[in-house]
Every structure is written in structure tokens, then in C-alpha cells.
Amino acid sequence: MDPAALKNSWALVAKSGDEVPLFFYSHLFLSHPEVREMFPVSMAAQRDKLVGALGAVVSNAAQIDEVVPFLQQLGRDHRRFSVVAEHYSAVGASLLATLQHFLGAAWTSELAADWAEAYGLVATVMVQSAEESAEDYPAWWSGEVLGVDRRTMDVTIVQIHPERPLEYRPGQSVAVEIPYRPRRWRYYSPANAPRSDGSFELHIGLVPGGQVSGPAVRSLKRGDPVRIGAPVGDSLKLPEEDGRDLVMIAGGTGLAPFRAMLEQLDRRTQSSQVPRVHLFHGARMPWNLYEHKQLTSLTQRPWFSYTPVVSDDSSYPGERGQVGAVAAARGPWTDRTALVCGSPAMVRHTVAHLTEAGVPTTAIHTESLGITTSAGSQQ
Ligand code: HEM
């Protein structure tokens, strides 16, 4: 396998932009109409979800060792789309046909052999990991909405009860499909430490122009059926009890995983030492500080302090600005572990400010809300 040839040929194909997924999906759905129903009804806004990743991942297959855990997770995740081993042949054939179409004369028999080998390697890791996980847990959990609290005009708190127990760790995320947008799964992080009845709370924020967040915030109601994917995410978690204090920085509904961690810490108080935690919650306008009361009341705990930060209201009497910049300026946090969650832009900005303020990158743990596979934001 020639790694440079794979990468260069994909870079060449990618230059054709939206034409590439258009060709790929036309080929796939014509040759295998049975897979059409796995994908969202309208593909307009997200043609590139699969194809871009497919090309990028497979063209890097020569360094597969570095991405095996990622591919295993991706394979397990694909179970919720009802993907099974034979579908990989269909997708592989359409990928090769797409490459051939866009590369023209550059599609040599050596290159074809390299791509086929690379795809085979990637697909094998994904399929094996999916099949192994099938012994441990279902492809998805059926669940029901227990209650909905329209907390602000753009944040809704939803209580969900999965039919079967679903084990997650505070800081992890679950993909959720709502009945109003079939097959458009979105990741959310449960906002509570695990409860004995298995129910959990999601904080859903309205994303301007979002295809799923609109009905999720406005239409979801008690009794609605939902599907839930297996918990994912390893980067955001409470550190082992290493004696280090914490600073948590959240943008918008990026607060959810921290709520779960705070609940977990609060349960610890009796049994062991709790680290000091300072939480910064950033929002555009004061009314977007949707947990202000609850967090203010939690400051009665000796280990917890909280600073709300507002960016877009010049009359706000408290801390104003981008939450990451405000938090970094309120340091030093050089002796604390920093946990950051929010939109990809908020996370990037916050990490830059913390690093500039002297917090070592190894002490900064991040998660972009809902993103567990590749970069980008979800709507
Ligand atoms: C090497 C093989 C593959 C790779 C690297 C890959 C990669 C990806 C990635 C990164 C995503 C986005 C995930 C997310 O948003 O959570 C995705 C979505 C998806 N994949 Fe795959 N995939 C592969 C094979 C397949 C196969 C064989 C099928 C079955 C036909 C499939 C069906 C889907 C579906 C239905 C989605 C959701 C698409 C959407 O919402 O627009 N994938 N894939």
C-alpha cells in the first residue's frame, strides 16, 4: 500500500466538493436501494457526513494502528443505523466507483488495489468491533420522554427513561433520535449522575437553523418514544481522586456533563475528600443562564464556587465577555485540572486562553458538545 498515493488521490477527488457525495449516494442508492432507508429522508444538509469521513479515514489506512480505537468506536456506533457486515461491501463498491469516476485516467490498477486494501482494513476493524459489542449491549435502547421543562425560550430540559438499563459515566454522551426527525441522531450528555430508576436528563439548546434542535426544544412531549445509542466519549470525566482541584468552563448547554459531575461529587462528600470546584457558565444573554438558581444554591457547599458570564448584554452587572477569556483571567488555574465543554468554537477559544495563562495542555480536558467522531458542529 502506498500511503502517499492514497492521500494524494483523495485530495484530488475532494477538490470536486459536493459533487463527490452526490455521485457516491446516487451510486449507492441505485445499486443498493435497500440501504436508502438507513439515511435521513432529506440528505440536503448532510450529504457529507459519511463520504468526507470515509475518504479521509480510508486514505489514511496505512497508519491504521493510530486510529484503531476510533474505528472500533465508529463501528460500534454504526449499529444504531442498523448497519451490518454486508452493507460494508455496498459502501466499499460505491466508494471505489466514486474514486474511479473523479480520478479518470489517474485511476490505475495499482491505485485501485491500494484503495481496496485500505477499505478492507478499515471495514474489518469496524465490523469486528460492532459484532463483539453486540454480545454486550443492544444496537439502541428504546426510551420514553417522562417530562419536559421548557426552561428558557431556547433551552428545554427533557427527562428520559430507557426501557432497559443503560450504564453511562458522567461526562459521556448518548446519541438520541426523536420521533419528529427520524434517523437524524444527535449527541447529548446526560446532566445527572446515574439514578436508580435509570432515567436521565438532557439539556437541549436551540441551534439557529438547526434541523433537529427546533422540534427537540419545541415539540418533544411526555410519552414521546425516543431511541438512544450506546454511551460514548472518554475525554471528559472526573479525574481520579488525585487531590487536584478543578475548574469547569461551560458554554450554553455544554453545562450538562458538569451538572452530572457535580452531582457525582456531591454524593462523595460523605465518603471521601471532594476537590474544590470553580464553575464558569457562559451564555449570550442573562436569561440563557438556565441553571442559575440551582448553581447558586449549590454554592452553599464549601467545595463549590460559581461564576456566570454573559457575552452579549452590555448592561449585565456581573462578569461580561467570552467565558473562556473571563475564566482564564480569573486564575491562576495552573494547579487545577481544567474541564471544558461547549461548541467547537467555544472550546478552541477557551483552550487557547487557558494555555496562554499557563495551564499545561495535559491538564485541560475537552469535549465539543455532541461531537465524538470528527470535527464539526451538529444542528
Ligand atoms: C469504512 C467505513 C465507514 C466509515 C469510515 C464511516 C464513517 C461515518 C461517519 C464518521 C459518520 C458520521 C457519524 C455521526 O454523525 O455520528 C457516518 C454516518 C453514517 N454512516 Fe458510516 N461509515 C462507514 C461505513 C458505513 C456503512 C457500510 C454504512 C451502511 C450503509 C454506513 C451508514 C451510515 C449512516 C446511515 C450514517 C448517518 C448519516 C447521516 O446522518 O447523514 N456507514 N459514517
TrEMBL record:
<keyword id="KW-0479">Metal-binding</keyword>
<dbReference type="Pfam" id="PF00042">
    <property type="entry name" value="Globin"/>
</dbReference>
<keyword id="KW-0813">Transport</keyword>
<dbReference type="InterPro" id="IPR001709">
    <property type="entry name" value="Flavoprot_Pyr_Nucl_cyt_Rdtase"/>
</dbReference>
<keyword id="KW-0411">Iron-sulfur</keyword>
<dbReference type="InterPro" id="IPR050415">
    <property type="entry name" value="MRET"/>
</dbReference>
<keyword id="KW-0408">Iron</keyword>
<dbReference type="InterPro" id="IPR039261">
    <property type="entry name" value="FNR_nucleotide-bd"/>
</dbReference>
<keyword id="KW-0561">Oxygen transport</keyword>
<feature type="domain" description="FAD-binding FR-type">
    <location>
        <begin position="138"/>
        <end position="238"/>
    </location>
</feature>
<dbReference type="InterPro" id="IPR017927">
    <property type="entry name" value="FAD-bd_FR_type"/>
</dbReference>
<dbReference type="InterPro" id="IPR012292">
    <property type="entry name" value="Globin/Proto"/>
</dbReference>
<dbReference type="InterPro" id="IPR017938">
    <property type="entry name" value="Riboflavin_synthase-like_b-brl"/>
</dbReference>
<keyword id="KW-0349">Heme</keyword>
<dbReference type="GO" id="GO:0005344">
    <property type="term" value="F:oxygen carrier activity"/>
</dbReference>
<dbReference type="InterPro" id="IPR008333">
    <property type="entry name" value="Cbr1-like_FAD-bd_dom"/>
</dbReference>
<dbReference type="GO" id="GO:0008941">
    <property type="term" value="F:nitric oxide dioxygenase NAD(P)H activity"/>
</dbReference>
<comment type="similarity">
    <text>In the C-terminal section; belongs to the flavoprotein pyridine nucleotide cytochrome reductase family.</text>
</comment>
<protein>
    <recommendedName>
        <fullName>nitric oxide dioxygenase</fullName>
        <ecNumber>1.14.12.17</ecNumber>
    </recommendedName>
</protein>
<dbReference type="Pfam" id="PF00970">
    <property type="entry name" value="FAD_binding_6"/>
</dbReference>
<dbReference type="GO" id="GO:0051537">
    <property type="term" value="F:2 iron, 2 sulfur cluster binding"/>
</dbReference>
<keyword id="KW-0001">2Fe-2S</keyword>
<dbReference type="GO" id="GO:0019825">
    <property type="term" value="F:oxygen binding"/>
</dbReference>
<dbReference type="InterPro" id="IPR000971">
    <property type="entry name" value="Globin"/>
</dbReference>
<dbReference type="InterPro" id="IPR001433">
    <property type="entry name" value="OxRdtase_FAD/NAD-bd"/>
</dbReference>
<feature type="domain" description="Globin">
    <location>
        <begin position="1"/>
        <end position="131"/>
    </location>
</feature>
<dbReference type="InterPro" id="IPR009050">
    <property type="entry name" value="Globin-like_sf"/>
</dbReference>
<keyword id="KW-0520">NAD</keyword>
<dbReference type="Pfam" id="PF00175">
    <property type="entry name" value="NAD_binding_1"/>
</dbReference>
<keyword id="KW-0521">NADP</keyword>
<comment type="similarity">
    <text>Belongs to the globin family.</text>
</comment>
<dbReference type="GO" id="GO:0020037">
    <property type="term" value="F:heme binding"/>
</dbReference>
